[in-house]
Amino acid sequence: PDRAVAAMARQEPASLAELNRIILAADPLVPGATKAVLGEGPEGAAIAIVGEQPGDQEDLEGRPFVGPAGQLLTRALEEAGIERGGAYLTNAVKHFKFAARGKRRLHQSPTAGEVKHYRWWLMKELGFVRPRLVVALGATAALALTGRSVSVLRERGPMRFCRTGSEGWDGFVTVHPSYLLRLPAGDGAEQACRDFVADLRQARGMVE
Ligand code: URA
């Protein structure tokens, strides 16, 4: 896979559309995914939001953040005063990785190697979108954006995401909405959701 990535990197796409064509033509690193799920939103968006990977519904629909975690994210963005359509939404890994259990497709976390495989795409993509702030949802996105393992609960908040040398983006690390969906119902879960919205509100304040 690394040689394939190097070959793709040499294609030097001149636009986001060209990059997306390369992404769509690439073989999924993980077998079974229906299609690559591309980023969505305007080039030049002030905020880019990076998730982990498409889930079951995203894979079927070919759009990011349309399943349960995406719906939670959409509501949280709204509460935080961020218009979803004005933000650029994408994922660190572009294909849905799952284990088949009968008819169900159970989400599998990508390995660090898989995140690395997709990193080139993400960096190019953000290079075309040129957001003023990149929000990492969860540890996988933070790994893709920093190249190191990040403890989300300990390090949540503003962080510089570096590409090469001094190049990079102002960033913000927060939890992944799937984490919130997994918390058992109760006061703690509600507080965690409020904290998530507060993080997004703080992120919005960084581009205003
Ligand atoms: N979770 C993600 O990280 N990305 C999606 O697109 C959907 C769910």
UniProtKB/TrEMBL annotation:
Q: Which UniProt keywords apply?
A: 4Fe-4S, DNA damage, DNA repair, Hydrolase, Iron, Iron-sulfur, Metal-binding
**Example of a GO biological process term:** DNA repair
What does the record give under GO molecular function? 4 iron, 4 sulfur cluster binding; deaminated base DNA N-glycosylase activity; metal ion binding
Q: Which residues form the Uracil-DNA glycosylase-like domain?
A: 38-197
The record's family statement is:
Belongs to the uracil-DNA glycosylase (UDG) superfamily. Type 4 (UDGa) family.
Protein name per its UniProtKB record: Type-4 uracil-DNA glycosylase
Q: Which organism does this record belong to? A: Azospirillum thiophilum
